[in-house]
């Protein structure tokens, strides 16, 4: 599902060029759940942004679902994300003036789905929010907002789900419930998952873990990560 080869990202700064990604090689099989761990500033979010087509690599190549996305134009990248990728961030990124139903239905409408509202209603029901369809984000708890964000990401049935610290703004119990939902939906729909987390227990729920340090990936056996 994902194949990154010698992926590099160099950004300018007042102190000179900064190598954010320094030759990343990563292969993720279809349906696999991979936990990506590492210290802040190691390049984890930048890698996710490149894989999603939200940041352009300065070297190397990325293919997702058999399609090389390196070098695609902005319109093609937008269509790629719409058709292939779901993203869940630490911040919920819901549109405050839209109801939960409208937030989930919007990407479906943009994709031309014939029953966007029906699919959105069904997906919100699957995350336990059938009774919150008409509520605005400001009327929802943090956990409920993140469940709306999960529903929005899964409603288009993405082949690849990218999750960046999805429980970072939630308390432990709520975060656990959200992650249970995420893994349940990932299994139900057969999506491929790349999960960025600082929580070793969450990473251990994935089939495989990799560690990022200084813009490079290192294999991290599950047994070692659990110690």
Descriptive keywords:
227 residues; alpha/beta; Rossmann fold; six-stranded mixed β-sheet; four-stranded antiparallel β-sheet; 8 helices; 10 strands; 36% helix; disordered C terminus
The low-confidence runs, each spanning 5 or more residues with pLDDT under 50, are 221-227
Named CATH topology: Rossmann fold
Could you spell the SSE succession in H and E letters? Answer: EEEHEEHEHHHEHEHEEH
Q: Shape, please?
A: globular
What is the CATH superfamily? P-loop containing nucleotide triphosphate hydrolases
What is the oligomer described by this structure?
Answer: single chain
Straight-line N-to-C gap: 30 Å
Mean pLDDT: 91
Number of domains: 1
The helix/strand class is: alpha/beta
What percent strand? Answer: 25-35%
Widest sheet, order of strands = 6-7-8-3-9-10
Main sheet characteristics:
6 strands, mixed
Q: Helix fraction?
A: 25-40%
Question: Total strand count, please?
Answer: 10
Question: Mind telling me which CATH architecture this is?
Answer: 3-Layer(aba) Sandwich
CATH class: Alpha Beta
């Amino acid at each position: 599902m994902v194949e990154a080869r010698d992926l590099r990202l160099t950004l300018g700064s007042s102190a000179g060029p900064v190598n954010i990604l320094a030759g990343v090689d990563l292969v993720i099989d279809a349906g696999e759940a991979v936990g990506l761990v590492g210290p802040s500033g190691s390049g984890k979010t930048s890698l996710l942004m490149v894989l999603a087509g939200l940041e352009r690599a300065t070297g190397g190549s990325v293919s997702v679902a058999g399609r090389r996305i390196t070098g695609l134009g902005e319109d093609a990248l937008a269509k790629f994300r719409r058709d292939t990728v779901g993203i869940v961030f630490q911040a919920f990124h819901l549109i405050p003036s839209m109801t939960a139903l409208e937030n989930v239905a919007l990407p479906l409408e943009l994709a031309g789905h014939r029953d966007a509202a029906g699919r959105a209603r069904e997906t919100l029901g699957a995350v336990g929010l059938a009774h919150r369809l008409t509520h605005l984000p400001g009327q929802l708890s943090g956990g409920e907002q993140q469940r709306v964000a999960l529903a929005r990401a899964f409603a288009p049935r993405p082949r690849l789900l990218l999750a960046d610290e999805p429980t970072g703004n939630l308390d432990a119990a709520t975060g656990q419930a959200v992650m249970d939902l995420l893994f349940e939906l990932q299994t139900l729909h057969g999506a491929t998952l790349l999960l960025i987390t600082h929580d070793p227990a969450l990473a251990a729920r994935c089939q495989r873990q990799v560690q990022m340090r200084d813009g490079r990936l290192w294999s991290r056996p599950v047994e070692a990560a659990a110690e």
